[in-house]
UniProtKB/TrEMBL annotation:
Pfam families cross-referenced by the UniProt entry: F_bP_aldolase
Cofactor: binding details: Binds 2 Zn(2+) ions per subunit. One is catalytic and the other provides a structural contribution.
One annotated Gene Ontology cellular component of this protein: cytosol
Sites where the protein binds Zn(2+) 1: 82, 189, 217
Binding positions for dihydroxyacetone phosphate per the UniProt entry: 190, 218-220, 239-242
Keyword list, A-Z: Metal-binding, Zinc
Domain of life from the UniProt record: Bacteria
GO molecular function, one term: zinc ion binding
InterPro entries in alphabetical order: Aldolase_TIM, Class_II_FBP_aldolase, FBA_II
Gene3D superfamilies in the cross-refs: Aldolase class I
Protein name from the UniProt record: Class II fructose-bisphosphate aldolase
Active site positions, chain numbering: 81 (proton donor)
Native organism: Candidatus Anaerostipes excrementavium
Length: 290
């Protein structure tokens, strides 16, 4: 059942739960995500990250994602993650996506407000939702390509300069009309080398000031205790990809270790799907308090 992001997150906010947002960069991932949500009878967000265009283009994977979302037995929001241009966001909307993230967080506050507000007008005109980002979310070196840069807390003298400010978030939401806001409070995209230290009180302050559902990017590696505290404080959407992807990779590796198994790619593919599904189910249980 295809629904908007706003529908899912407004309900999650009311129930003090979070909806998992999982990247469907392959057919195996898409199947694993939908199967996990259906087995737990929980809503889910199926998303394509623009950074995965090197794996498969939105024009190719989008219709497949929509096919599975429409036929799912549970509510599914179809979402573009980290859209960096109007053109890509509009492309997603034309493909039937029910929400887009317009990410202008690297730009000045003024430009972020101006451009996000325009995207909100476009998306709302066709009944879709908009996510935006305010602040800076760290990136692990493990998710970067060779020669790419990454950053960590030690690179900054004052974390207040890059973490989301509650009053600035309030102003941003009022001026843009976004449906939800991705915030910076200590999480990191990619594989954690050490357990992250999250500024959880900041999340509650942003929730009270901005009054919209909040989004956690860089969800892998966070402890169950911190997840629950973050959700209690206002997180309603959790982006989760690296660890589910790793689970699929490990299952593939294990499959080929057994010399008695036939060298069939499709059999290995099913093993990877099953592993991702089980990892996603465990994440959903935490987010939905099951």
């Amino acid at each position: 059942m295809l629904v908007t992001l706003k529908e899912l997150l407004d309900q999650a906010q009311e129930e003090k739960k979070a909806v998992g947002a999982f990247n469907g960069s392959t057919l195996e991932a898409i199947r694993g995500i939908i199967q996990a949500a259906e087995e737990l009878n929980c809503p889910v967000i199926l998303q394509h990250a623009q950074s995965h265009d090197d794996l498969i283009d939105l024009e190719e994977i989008g219709p497949i994602m929509k096919y599975y979302a429409q036929r799912a037995k549970v509510p599914v929001a179809l979402h573009l993650d980290h859209g960096s241009s109007f053109e890509r966001c509009v492309q997603a909307l034309r493909l039937g996506f029910t929400s887009v993230m317009y990410d202008a967080s690297a730009k000045s506050f003024e430009d972020n407000v101006k451009e996000t507000a325009e995207m909100v007008k476009i998306a709302h005109a066709v009944g879709a939702s908009v996510e935006a980002e305010l602040g800076h979310i760290f990136t692990s070196e493990i998710v970067q390509g060779e020669g790419s840069s990454y950053d960590k807390k030690d690179d900054y003298e004052n974390l207040d300069d890059i973490y989301t400010d509650p009053e600035v978030a309030k102003e941003f939401v009022e001026k843009t009309g976004v449906d939800c806001l991705a915030i910076a409070f200590g999480t990191t995209h990619g594989v954690y080398l050490t357990e992250p230290k999250l500024d959880l009180p900041r999340v509650a302050k942003i929730r009270d000031a901005a009054k919209v559902p909040l989004v956690m990017h860089g969800g892998s590696g966070v402890s169950e205790e911190d997840y629950k505290a973050a959700i209690e404080n206002g997180i309603c959407k959790v982006n989760y990809y690296t660890y589910m992807n790793t689970a699929g990779g490990k299952a593939s590796k294990e499959y080929w270790k057994d010399d008695t198994k036939p060298l069939f790619y499709d059999s290995m593919s099913l093993a990877a799907t099953e592993a991702m599904k089980e990892d996603i189910k465990e994440a959903i249980k935490v987010f939905q308090k099951k």
